[in-house]
Amino acid sequence: KELDILANPNGRLNDGCLNGVAHLLQAVFSQPGHESHYPSGRCAIFSTFDLHMVRYHASDADIWRRTRATQYWERAVWILPIHRRSPSEHWVLAIIYPEARRVLLFDSFAGGARLWRHEIQNDVSSPSDDQEIMELVTRLVICANRNNCHLPVVVEEGWVAQPASVRPHQTNGYDCGLWVLAGIAAVLRGFHVPGLCEADMPSFRELLHRYILGLPSYYSK
């Protein structure tokens, strides 16, 4: 199913596409000798499902179980793809720098901070029930420290959120997931925003599809 979506020029990427390709990109960029080996190794990529744990009040034990494999407490950059359902379904990306207490928000439509109100506010130090990103960050810090993985990050104050780009990258209604993957690739390579334009998206989609088709197949006995 995911390969069919990726092969479709107008296909809207789902969670499987986003999560699978994101980790594939990191595996490629993290290879020894690759020019992006260092910046890629500084990143932890979270699943598109991880923010749901905050929304549905998951326990600390569940959050730790689902996220500890990323070793996020040892990473300088946290990458969090998010599927927004309102005002319309749309993929966006949060790039979190825990030590600097900074969050960059990449939206290919450059929709503005008001569209992020259910995830984070511009001043993330002000109290709000809708600050889901910051609630996840707080829970991650708590979970790491409770499990003897030292993570000295202040979560109560001093955080700022900024748009990664104020210029719209996308005009169609189906490439937002692809733009999030382009954003993830940029961060893994040490940048904040992708250096692509909308005309590059068909080639980027085809490149990802061809690379996945070229991977060896493994079958369980």
UniProtKB/TrEMBL annotation:
It comes from the Eukaryota. The keyword Protease applies. It comes from Hypsizygus marmoreus (White beech mushroom). SUPFAM superfamilies: Cysteine proteinases (SSF54001). Belongs to the peptidase C48 family. It holds the Pfam family Peptidase_C48. GO terms for biological process: proteolysis. This is Ubiquitin-like-specific protease 1B.
